[in-house]
Structures are given as structure tokens and as C-alpha cells.
Amino acid sequence: MQQYEKPIRVGVVGVGRGKGFARGAGPHLGMELVALCDTWEERLNELGKELSVATYTDYDKFLEHDIDAVILANYFHEHAPFAIKALDAGKHVMSETSACFTLAQGVELVEAVERSGRIYMFAENYPYMVFNQEMRRLYQAGHIGEFKYGEGEYVHPMSAEESARISPGMDHWRNWIPATYYCTHSLAPLMYITDTWPVKVNGFVIAHDPEDETHFGKTVRRSDLASMIAVRMDNGAVVKLLKGSLRGHGVWVRVHGNKGLMENLRFGDTHMVRVRREPFDKDTGEPVERVYLPDFPEHHAEAMKAGHGGGDFFMNYHFAEAIRRNEQPFLDVYRGVAMSIIGVLAYRSALDDSAPVVVPDFRDIEVRRQYADDHWSPAPWDRGPGQPWPSILGDMRPSNRGIEFASKIWRDSGYTG
Ligand SMILES: NC(=O)c1ccc[n+]([C@@H]2O[C@H](COP(=O)([O-])OP(=O)(O)OC[C@H]3O[C@@H](n4cnc5c(N)ncnc54)[C@H](O)[C@@H]3O)[C@@H](O)[C@H]2O)c1
Q1: pTM, entire model
Q2: Where are the beta strands (DSSP E) in 333-398?
Q3: Domain coverage including residue 271
Q4: CA of 287 relative to ligand 1 center, distance in Å
Q5: Helices (H) then strands (E): counts for the chain
């Protein structure tokens, strides 16, 4: 195991998804978990005891603990204000998706990182799955030529039971975020592989189906089933993203270049990569098609033990490396915000008959200043003139059946909020 001079003292916020970060932030990466924060006291104390670290229910008090870095796995829509507070307190930040919930928050977040001089990393783990790292290696080596067209899919259907279990409370974010918002798992791999940026977006939403008895008909969800987002990248390439709760679980990435195609397999071992180069493009002796299981380029053994196909290992790893080198990581604040606002802008497009919407480049101060007051938000507490409903169908109300079903599961899981 590599020896590190001084461990990076880490605090984690949110003990759901945050558990993985907390358990992974160990001496093997030169990190030391020292504190946890969550408002759900019972779950917080349980994990605090298991990991023998300080626990806080109050975020401001948690920030006063002697920590160098904060990992945010709190609610989807609250990462930006939490990140800004931590940066202003002099902490490095790694934030779960989404980086920001509105365009105004995106501007504020970018400016907080710039003013703090601290490291900010967007914790998108999907690019670091083994097949995506291999596709980046091939792409960067010029193997499939210039990026022309790509697809990213994150299709994650859930039973009504599971949906209720992981979405406690009528206003839990999973029960109302619009179908385009959780888009970074499908876009991030394509940005990582090809190093291109989104410039224009069209959103298409597949509406809520209250008649679906085993699914939305039995939950308290008020948003839609799924979305398809078309994105134009800065090199002219076109990308199609598919995400949501459609039947047919799958995580899939496809990249067409002007010299070949690569993708991960859709079935069997989905970590395997398929590369195809046409007979008129390929080198002599090179097969037209290759299908193989790649290794991680580094830390293969450790990554193999981690969640999300190894992607989770690389979050803590790259965050720690960025702090030690004092250099922003690849998944910096600009990329994190760019990926996150695609979900917002695609929803705007979907509500306008899928018309194209320009994606502002927040690396440009003049451009981002134009969005500093853009608080467009579907959150229940932001309801008001000009604000969108979470569903393209408008004000969807859960059925009594859905409310009864979910309430029982929440009670059984100890949720009292
Ligand atoms: N990258 C991935 O693969 C992946 C997987 C799951 C979740 N996520 C992301 O991680 C985040 C958390 O996901 P989750 O499934 O654990 O969600 P969750 O809503 O179940 O958990 C959030 C936790 O944050 C706590 N919390 C909320 N407000 C707080 C506050 N003010 N102070 C302290 N704690 C607070 C909640 O009590 C809860 O335990 C989300 O943004 C989600 O998008 C990412």
C-alpha cells in the first residue's frame, strides 16, 4: 500500500449513497474519514458507530469539525448551496449529482469555486466504469477517429416497493424531479470519452402513466416516466441520451467516430467492449470486430471491489489526487455544471414542443452573468408564476392507493418525517 505523508481529513454528508464514499475514504487513498452529517439521526448514529467517527445533524456544526474535504451525498436538489457553504469555509468539495438544480445555482457554484481556490470535483462515477475508461483510451489514441454520433443510456426501472423505500416522504426529490433532470449518468461518459461539450439541446419527455398498476399507479410520483434528450456537441457531433424508468434495465454507451465504432455490450457481460472498424478503414491483420473485457488502466484490483462497476473507487481516488496535486480534476465544476444544466434545459425544451435550447458556457463570465437570476425550478416549494410543474402533463396528483402503499413502506422503514 502506498504511504501518504498526511491524510486528507474527510467528512461525508448524507448516509444513504454517502455510505459508499465513507467506507471507501481510507488510508489506501491517503484519506481519513473523520465526520458524518445527516438529519436522519438513527441512520447517522448507526453508521457513525460502525465507522467510529464524529456525527452531526447540523451542517454548520459539521463544517466546524477539523476537516479538509467534504463529500456531498445529500438531496439531489440541494448540492449547490451545501457546496458553496463548504467552499466558503475553506473546504475542498466533491459533490454528487446534480451539481446544481437551477441555472442561477450553476453560476453561483462556479463563482464560489473560483473565489475559494479549493478543489471541486463532480462525483460522476459512470465515466469511470471499466468500459468507459477503455473507450476513452481508444478514442484518445485516435482509434475510431473523430466523434460523430453517440448514445448514452441509463434506464433504471424500479418496482413500486423499491421506489417507495428509497423515496421517503411525499416531497422526497425522487417523487417529483422531472424526467430529464437525472441526466448526468448518460451524458458524462460521452463527455469523458470524447472531451466534447454540449452546446444545444432538445428534450422529449415520455409522460407519467397513472394507469401503470405496478409502477407509477402505485407510487406517489408526480413526474414523468422517462426522457430522450438530443444534444449537439461543440465539435458538431450529435448525442442521444435515454434515461428514466422504462422497462428494460440497462447502462449503455455507444460512440461512432469517422474511423470506427465502439460500445459496451448490451447483454452478457455488459462491461465488455465491442470495437468495429470497417474493412476499408482497418489496418492489415486487424479484425473487423473485437469483443473483449478490458482491465482498468490503473488500480484494477481495488476498483474491482468497488460499487457501480468500479466507478465508485475512482471518485475518491481522483478527488484525493486532485487535492494532493492542487489541480482541478477532469470532472471539474465547469463540466459538472454543464452536465447538470442539460437536464434543466432539456425540460424547458420539452415544455416548448422540444424546440432547441442553447446551452450556455459558464466558463465565460459574460455568458454566465446572463443566467445569474435564472431560478426556474419545478421544486414544490418554488411553485409560482412562470415555474414549471414536475410533469409535462401539469399538476399530477398521486392516487390514494399510491399514498397508502408508500406510507406503509415509509412507516416500516422507520421514516417519521
Ligand atoms: N452516482 C451514483 O451512482 C448515485 C447513486 C445513488 C445516489 N446518487 C446521488 O447521491 C445523492 C444522495 O442519494 P441517496 O439515494 O442517498 O438520496 P437520499 O435522499 O436517500 O439521501 C440523502 C440523505 O441526505 C440527508 N440529508 C438531507 N438533507 C440534509 C441536511 N440538511 N443535512 C444533513 N443531511 C441531510 C438525508 O437525511 C438522507 O439520508 C443524490 O444526489 C443522488 O442523485 C448517486
Answers
A1: 0.97
A2: 357-358
A3: 126-382
A4: 45
A5: 13, 15
Cβ–ligand 1 contact at 224 (below 6 Å): no
Instruction: Identify the domain boundary among 100, 122, 144.
Output: 122
Nearest to 106 by CA among 392, 379, 367: 367
The answer to whether residues 134 and 65 belong to one domain is no
408 inside domain = no
Type of residue numbered 22: A
The string of pLDDT tens digits covering residues 234-258 is 999 999 999 999 999 999 999 999 9
Q: How many domains does the chain have?
A: 2
The residue contributing the CA closest to ligand 1 atom 5 is: 17
Residues 148, 32 share a domain: no
Instruction: Confirm whether 411 is domain-assigned.
Output: no
Residues 177 and 247 in one domain: yes
| 369/372 Cα distance (integer angstroms) | 5
Identify whether residues 99 and 204 lie together within a single domain. Answer: no
Cβ-based neighbours of 71, under 8 Å, separated by 6 or more: 10, 11, 12, 13, 18, 21, 22, 25, 93, 94, 95, 123, 319
Centroid of ligand 1 to alpha carbon of 74 (angstroms):
4
pLDDT tens readout for residues 158-170:
999 999 999 999 9
